[in-house]
């Protein structure tokens, strides 16, 4: 059987007991039912495999299709079965998600439709997600088996299912179902016995099948057409905030947790905001001027810089990336502005052709480059900010790229990238981890 390197993650809830699931796939990590943001948090990790079984529906935001697409783009294999997984696999099969089991096949064949077919109420994690209501697909499967055995008539089955489907999934209890069975004059004991035996649960059967596939004990079905080919996806604020930071000690945190810790002190927050703004202008100056480090030079600088930051913490580069929520294929992009700043240290204003009469005593070329960006775009600073290139550059950075209509600038993304490139995100992750118990409320 084919085996794939990387982590194996399973999002599981009421479809199958955790103890049985672990026995079927011992090398998997089992997580609670999936919800919005859970997959965004994986996008900076090396590719592995994800099996989605259960997920939240109505009480919280469900996992977005866009999250799954982003994970597929970064090389992860995503499987779906039984419940939420079957629904998302139906929607995203053309893009590479793999559906497993009868519930998925029923959806694909049009035999069932609507998320209410798999929805149910269940207990908490402490209760091992004990089902409190009956999923409609399990009822269909059970009644269909009894019909095949001759214990129920086809008209009885169709009448029971029609009435049961009209109920909301929150009230589809065994008691409610048996009342309908009794109304149809069907065998109540046979239905009760069949549904009381979890071995007959279709969702449980599909989950067992999917776990055997994930464990490599059963062949993996071929994926559908994969579109687009795996490439680094564009970073969006909502996705980036959900990424996990793996501090040098302690359990993982989301970037949003670290940002909240940073926000408690204004200087660590405001300074990188200005640095992120400045570095965007520098990168855009490279674009419009045709000068500056090329792609190869930026990649080489990013690798050297990140390696140096990792050595300063006495960790590997991969460990530093995990503690900074950055993928290794993102290093050049996240550190592009820093690479331009470094490149400018070896240049002169004369060579770059950016001498300015108001240069003053600026020790760096950066203010001159920023003022040259203004000249190229027809931007003029207000009179009170024209005393020197330093004053004009400071005004430009303070206004920020968004003020000038930059469509590819997101302040939150720039902030996170800047803190990471400066080597501070890993350190702030450690601080946030230390403060986490103090921040919890009863």
Question: What can you tell me about this protein's structure?
Answer:
The chain is mainly alpha-helical and 442 residues long. The chain folds into 3 domains: 8-123 and 204-214; 126-201, no CATH class; 248-439, no CATH class. It is 51% helix and 5% strand. The chain has 21 helices and 7 strands. The protein has helices spanning 18-24, 65-73, 84-92, 101-109, 136-149, 154-166, 174-183, 188-196, 202-214, 237-242, 255-263, 266-289, 295-312, 317-324, 331-334, 336-344, 349-352, 366-376, 389-399, 411-421, 424-439, and strands at 8-11, 29-31, 49-52, 77-81, 98-100, 244-245, 253-254. The strands form 2 sheets. Strands 2-1-3-4-5 form a 5-stranded parallel sheet, sandwiched between helices. A two-stranded antiparallel ribbon has the order 6-7. Helix 6 (154-166) packs across helix 7, helix 11 (255-263) crosses helix 21 (424-439) and helix 12 (266-289) packs across helix 18. The radius of gyration is 28 Å and the shape is elongated. The relative contact order is 0.10. Mean pLDDT is 86; it is low at 437-442.
